């Protein structure tokens, strides 16, 4: 599938290896070894203990790509990121398949870094460290030491993640130099697209996530099976963003597969037909498209150039109490009902702090909450409230009971759609993505790859 926007880097997957089968064949044939060595039969016990240095940091080559070594440790550490994203819920069979795909991903990453270097494009260590620090800031409150420790704990490393960052930056800059300057979108093309947008006012617009796997004719069945396994893992709780970053061969891989807001007319026919029937939160695939297979995830849905009530910014107060340890469900229900009745006596947001204090409850205020960011069951209900009104109590025995009170609401302005410059950039990104796919295919075709 061709990405509609956000094409900032491309990490393609995947080729194949098979040396483990050969090793298994050697170990499984002691009788044949006995025939060639009549002085005695070699017996290998099941509970083998290796004496000597079995240091996991000893790095053995798994593949050599144009002279650059990819080790088993490299594969293990990158695979550990996926295992952590799926909370370790991956079968042994799936782990074998993922391992092969991670290796293919690393091969493409190596080709991208090599091609950037051959074009005299350098990504400094300082730039890589800065990007790494931004990731740490998003996940560990700017604590890179905590990030380092977490990666080590899950079996990965800071260096593995930094190599991935270097690959993304290298490919992005390579495309900016060798592809982007030769992409041209005329004013007429942009104006025509703007006219189509205006004509489509009020029609549905979709925010989709994609995972695209290229499938040459000779590998179609294998890729289909791989895509089916990915769908199964996602339905069992796997992270769509993590799988998209590691496996997708569209440029949106760098942003977790997020296509942004698009209309069905911007999708290939096969995908438009499927997306039209999808509901937010639904996953569908694999879907066969020219050149491969797609997995789609509908993140959200809205109407073109129409203000969406869910974009309203709400001022909320959350009032909460905790349940005593070991409380029964029946007693908790009574306590929640009494708490709700007490909060109803508050005369709006200005009075709720006083009432909450009398009830021994905690109050948290936030005046920058988008209705869209609230859980689905709460969104519609809270948009029906007037200032000072509350939702029914919700919670659990472990988390206690909470009540949301609406204190104010700023409705969204009518969406006028993308500007000329934004739409032009979007169309250019789409064309860059198409050229980038061809570019990487050429790099794969010309690569010299040796497998261990």
UniProtKB/TrEMBL annotation:
Q: Where is the signal peptide?
A: 1-34
Does the keyword S-adenosyl-L-methionine belong to this entry?
Answer: no
Q: Which domain of life is it from?
A: Bacteria
Keyword annotations from UniProtKB, A to Z: Chaperone, Isomerase, Periplasm, Rotamase, Signal
Q: Give the organism, scientific name.
A: Novosphingobium mangrovi
State the name under which the record lists this protein.
Parvulin-like PPIase
* SUPFAM superfamilies, A to Z: FKBP-like (SSF54534), Triger factor/SurA peptide-binding domain-like (SSF109998)
PpiC domain segment(s): 203-300
Question: GO terms for molecular function, please?
Answer: peptidyl-prolyl cis-trans isomerase activity
**A Pfam family recorded for this sequence:** Rotamase
């Amino acid at each position: 599938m061709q990405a509609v926007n956000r094409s900032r880097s491309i990490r393609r997957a995947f080729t194949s290896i098979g040396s483990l089968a050969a090793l298994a064949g050697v170990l499984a044939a002691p009788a044949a070894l006995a025939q060639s060595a009549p002085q005695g039969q070699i017996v290998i016990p099941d509970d083998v203990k290796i004496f000597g240095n079995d240091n996991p940091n000893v790095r053995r080559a798994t593949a050599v790509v144009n002279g650059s070594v990819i080790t088993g440790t490299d594969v293990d550490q990158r695979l550990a990121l996926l295992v952590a994203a799926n909370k370790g819920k991956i079968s042994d069979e799936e782990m074998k398949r993922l391992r092969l795909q991670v290796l293919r991903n690393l091969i493409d990453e190596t080709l991208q870094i090599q091609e950037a270097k051959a074009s005299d494009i350098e990504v400094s260590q300082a730039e890589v460290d800065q990007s790494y620090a931004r990731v740490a800031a998003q996940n560990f409150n700017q604590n890179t030491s905590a990030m380092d420790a977490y990666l080590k704990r899950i079996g990965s490393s800071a260096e593995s993640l930094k190599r991935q960052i270097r690959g993304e930056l290298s490919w992005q800059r390579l495309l900016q130099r060798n592809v982007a300057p030769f992409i041209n979108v005329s004013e007429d093309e942009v104006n025509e697209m703007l006219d189509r947008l205006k004509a489509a006012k009020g029609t549905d617009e979709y925010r989709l996530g994609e995972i695209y796997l290229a499938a040459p004719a000779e590998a179609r069945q294998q890729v289909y099976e791989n895509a089916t396994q990915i769908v199964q893992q996602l339905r069992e709780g796997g992270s769509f963003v993590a799988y998209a970053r590691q496996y997708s061969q569209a440029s949106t891989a760098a942003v977790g597969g997020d296509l942004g807001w698009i209309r069905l007319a911007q999708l290939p026919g096969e995908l438009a037909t499927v997306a039209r029937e999808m509901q937010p939160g639904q996953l569908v695939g694999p879907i066969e498209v020219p050149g491969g297979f797609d997995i789609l995830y509908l993140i959200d849905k809205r109407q073109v150039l129409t203000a969406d009530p869910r974009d309203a910014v709400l001022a909320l107060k959350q009032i909460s109490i905790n349940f005593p340890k070991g409380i029964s469900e029946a007693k908790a229900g009574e306590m929640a009902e009494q708490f709700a009745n007490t909060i109803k006596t508050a005369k709006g947001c200005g009075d709720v702090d006083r009432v909450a204090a009398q009830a021994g409850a905690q109050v948290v205020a936030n005046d920058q909450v988008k209705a869209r960011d609230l859980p689905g069951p709460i969104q519609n209900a809270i948009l029906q409230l007037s200032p000072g009104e509350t939702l029914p109590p919700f919670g659990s025995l472990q988390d206690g009971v909470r009540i949301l009170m609406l204190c104010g609401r700023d409705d969204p302005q009518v969406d006028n759609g993308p500007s000329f410059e934004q739409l032009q950039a979007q169309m250019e990104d789409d064309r860059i993505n198409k050229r980038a796919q061809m570019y990487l295919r050429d790099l794969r075709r010309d690569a010299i790859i040796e497998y261990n």
